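Hypothesis: this fold can be encoded by more than one sequence.
Test: take the structure tokens below, design a sequence, compare later.
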């Protein structure tokens, strides 16, 4: 039986494997007989698409298909609905922020599995985690299923493998080398952006959408805007003196900034010509957020590796520093966990939902064998029980035996 129900769900869900690809979709019906018919039809649809019998509808842009899909999804929401379906709609909207730039002007019939593979690689190079890219393709599948496009593509699409540990913790030496390399970049926003990521653990996309009106220079804090999770959206946090100092220096470049202007706007850099000392080499678009710093980021990682290597005469044969933008968040969270900061506080700072705290602890907590050994030694005998109040093993033991 390939039909099942999620816990608390009233409708049947189909779950089977087709050409090595797992297909798991809602049948949108409570009736088991109807669900079986829908599943059988879905299998047939995939087989026809694989054989080239069913073609995607022509003349439909991906952007139009996405708008129709989101309109239908939003219309099906009940007033003030929260939880499951509403959360799916929010995730789809977030995923479309990445899907639309890549596919919006393409006709569905013209999209190939090569386009999907290219999208996957570009998102990985931009620092997205494999799991995130797979979720984005889940939204792509939902949008293109009705047209027959997904059935045509699915046999050749390979979802990315997701590893349990998807983050790298930078050493203090690597962090300082990376910040120095960013400070030398022609992309002048790279240094404050990376500094903010390391000091707050915020997601890259959330940092890029920050506006000056959300920065509290007097209170040394900021309020994030839209984030990947509901728990993270709109959260207000304090920031370190180091991060605030970087923002103050960065703000000095924009004396006419407005609250609605982006902290990290889109900029273009023009190499000054010999003798050209007038004007700024930067052209700034304050109402447009920066979308990619990939080229500057790659250059900075290469220079950081050179700095860590002791600044040799040549950078030849030196591999760039292994670091994605997401690893800056991973590093910040891991540092807080190692410092003993309570998980609920970390969750509030970085925007985790309550339900993901335990999973995130397992993902981000990298403890040494010595730390783990000290932990297990405390439970090796009753005489080693430590009081949560006094921290005195002998006193705690007496309390337990009295």
């Amino acid at each position: 039986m390939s039909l099942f129900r999620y816990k608390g769900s009233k409708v049947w869900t189909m779950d089977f494997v087709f050409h090595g690809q797992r297909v798991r979709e809602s049948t949108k019906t409570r009736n088991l007989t109807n669900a079986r018919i829908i599943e059988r039809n879905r299998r047939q649809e995939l087989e026809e698409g694989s054989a080239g019998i069913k073609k995607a509808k022509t003349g439909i842009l991906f952007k139009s298909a996405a708008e129709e899909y989101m309109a239908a999804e939003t219309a099906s929401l009940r007033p003030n609905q929260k939880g499951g379906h509403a959360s799916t709609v929010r995730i789809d909207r977030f995923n479309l922020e990445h899907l639309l730039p890549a596919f919006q002007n393409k006709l569905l019939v013209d999209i190939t599995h090569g386009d999907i593979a290219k999208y996957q690689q570009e998102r990985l190079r931009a620092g997205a985690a494999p799991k995130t890219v797979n979720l984005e393709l889940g939204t792509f599948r939902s949008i293109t299923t009705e047209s027959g496009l997904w059935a045509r593509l699915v046999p050749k699409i390979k979802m990315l493998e997701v590893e349990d540990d998807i983050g790298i913790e930078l050493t203090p030496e690597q962090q300082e080398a990376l910040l120095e390399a960013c400070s030398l970049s022609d992309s002048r926003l790279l240094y404050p952006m990376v500094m903010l990521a390391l000091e707050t653990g915020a997601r890259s996309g959330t940092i890029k959408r920050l506006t000056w009106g959300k920065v509290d220079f007097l209170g040394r804090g900021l309020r994030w805007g839209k984030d990947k999770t509901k728990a993270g959206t709109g959260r207000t946090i304090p920031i370190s003196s180091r991060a605030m100092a970087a923002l103050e220096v960065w703000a000095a470049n924009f004396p006419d900034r407005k609250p609605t202007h982006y902290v990290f706007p889109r900029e273009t850099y023009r190499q000054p010509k010999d003798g050209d000392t007038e004007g700024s080499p930067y052209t700034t678009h304050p109402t447009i957020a920066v979308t990619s710093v990939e080229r500057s980021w790659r250059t900075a990682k290469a220079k950081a590796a050179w700095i860590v290597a002791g600044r040799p005469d040549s950078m030849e044969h030196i591999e760039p520093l292994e670091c994605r933008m997401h690893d800056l968040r991973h590093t910040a969270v891991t540092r807080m966990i190692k410092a003993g900061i309570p998980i609920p506080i970390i969750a509030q700072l970085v925007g985790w939902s309550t339900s993901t705290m335990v999973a995130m602890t397992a993902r981000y907590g990298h403890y040494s064998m010595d730390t783990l050994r000290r932990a297990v030694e405390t439970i090796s005998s009753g005489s080693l029980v430590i009081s949560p109040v006094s921290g005195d093993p002998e006193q705690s033991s007496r309390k337990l035996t009295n």
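DSSP finds 16 helices and eight strands in the chain. The CA atoms of residues 17 and 24 lie 9 Å apart.
Hypothesis status: open.
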